[in-house]
Amino acid sequence: MSAVKNVLFVTFDQWRWDCLSAIDHPVLRTPNLDAFCQDATHFANHWSVTCPCGPGRSALLTGTYQHKNRALRNGTPLDRRFTNVALEARKLNFDPVLFGYTDISPDPRGADHRDPVFNSYEGVLPGMTRLCRLDEDFGPWFADLKKKGYTLPQRPWDIFRPSEGYDDKPASFAPARFKAEDSNTAFLTNAVLDYLDARQGKPFFAHVTYISPHPPFIAPAPYNARYDADAVPMPNRAVSPEKEGDVHPWLKHHLATYDTNSALVEKMVVGQRTAATALSDAEIRQLRATYYGMINEVEDNFTRILDRLKESGEYDQTLIVLTSDHGEQSGDHWLFSKTGFFDESYRVPLIIRDPRPEAKAGRGRKVQAFTESVDVTPTILHALGAPIPRQVDGKPLSSWLAGQTPENWRTEAHIEFDFGDPVARTAEQALGLRTDECSLTVIRSDRYKYVHFAALPPLFYDLQEDPYQLVNRAADPAYQAAMLDMAQRLITWRMQTEDRDLSYFHIENGAYELPDDRYADLL
């Protein structure tokens, strides 16, 4: 395929895979995104390979699994030896620009540790030129709000406190204190539109990172009331938090500490201190309904960008990638946010529109094969005509975009999660573990899911019999052969994705770089 002119790479933060009416969500309606799916390729079985935000974006933007890049937690530095999609695009004379954030913590080795760049984990991906900052202090957005006459709070997150006068409803129903046209979502979109206008048709590479639908669960009118909470289904979970926690020592510990983490709970609805597992059914339904409204708000703003590209004639010159850094529990398994080994935290949407004529056959296609966040960077680079770096663990999705079905594609998703806390040592003390033992790895096929802990018992689920993963069958003799097979597949995957950068060189009468045959059957 010939190279594309422009790249629009968009992420919604914390957007779970099933929140699209294109895959028959029972309540949420996303007409604009559904229309985009029909003009693009929808990867409906797509997985982030880790969470939370920093690790998820490290994997997404470098194309590497966590066991290679070792960006384990928010605040864990990304080793500077790794290249990424922005640095590679620069080699093609692009100036990749960032609207929002990437949460990539910089490598501190060789630097003065008092450098202000280390004051926050919300660093910028090397190679990105940030045009619009939207970190947790919300500085540029707040400056915009001040110009419009808003009174700004002392604590930045208090901007998300619900409007008063809605005491007859759960707190998350109340609209935000700012108008939809003044939200951080609209602010970011306006910056993107200004940038596109200023380019005047010149090639661009824009990475647009929306905060929504990340909590707090608060939406400006009219999105706050878009869905009737009474029509929203309850989460999939055990009969009680205690019963849910009985499945595994880590989960029991996590559920207990989750309810005592007031900062996390308050970020769900600013000002609300109710324990997450003590929320009423009405509160849970409303939180989910508000989350859906937040998706509609960011959907409408994403559509504004698409409309501008169509108006300028650049839509058919632009590779458009829309995805998320990780998912959201939404009350499933008695949890909100993202964590652990649950599907809801990792399965996310991926929609790609390849504008080239060769990709016409892939538009409107819904791919059900397993794809992963590490596939996105090699897909973008291949579309730009760039070589794929040796470090990359993912596979370019080019064949799928062209309407083809490649042979020997992966048959499982792979997930890694680190639950250690080397600062507070919460999990370490509660579970009697060293920090390096606080990790888990998941391999998930259509039928089975195996969860391997570094120093705790494993989990095994039969997804055909137990789709919501409530019954651990690791000790069931009837599943020993299947569990062994999945464990062996996990080992094979790890062996095939170890660091390979120097293994492709040979030293004899000089240094020789050997051919890269990883994608011989895909490209």
What does this structure look like?
- 28% of the residues lie in helices and 15% in strands.
- It is of the alpha/beta class and 523 residues long.
- The protein has helices spanning 31-38, 53-62, 66-69, 85-90, 139-147, 184-199, 241-245, 249-260, 262-268, 281-312, 376-383, 398-401, 426-431, 480-496; strands at residues 6-12, 41-47, 97-100, 129-133, 205-210, 318-324, 347-353, 365-367, 371-372, 413-418, 439-444, 448-453, 459-462, 505-507, 511-513.
- It has a single domain, classed as Alkaline Phosphatase, subunit A (3-Layer(aba) Sandwich), CATH 3.40.720.
- α6 (184-199) packs parallel to α10 (281-312).
- The protein is built from 14 helices and 15 strands.
- The mean pLDDT is 94.
- The strands form three sheets. Strands 1, 2, 3, 4, 5, 6, 7, 8 and 9 form a nine-stranded mixed sheet that branches.
> How many H/I helices?
14
Distance between the ends: 9 Å
Examine the coordinates and then state which fold CATH places here, giving the name of the CATH topology.
Answer: Alkaline Phosphatase, subunit A
Number of strands: 15
Counting structural domains, the number is 1
Rounded average pLDDT: 94
Named at the architecture level, the CATH assignment is 3-Layer(aba) Sandwich
Helix content: 25-40%
CATH homologous superfamily assignment: Alkaline Phosphatase, subunit A
Q: How would you describe the shape? A: globular
Radius of gyration: 23 Å
CATH class category label = Alpha Beta
Helix-strand category: alpha/beta
Unreliable stretches: none
Order of helices and strands: EHEHHHEEHHEHHHHEEEEHHEHEEEHEE
Largest sheet: 9 strands, mixed
The share of residues in extended strands comes to: 5-15%
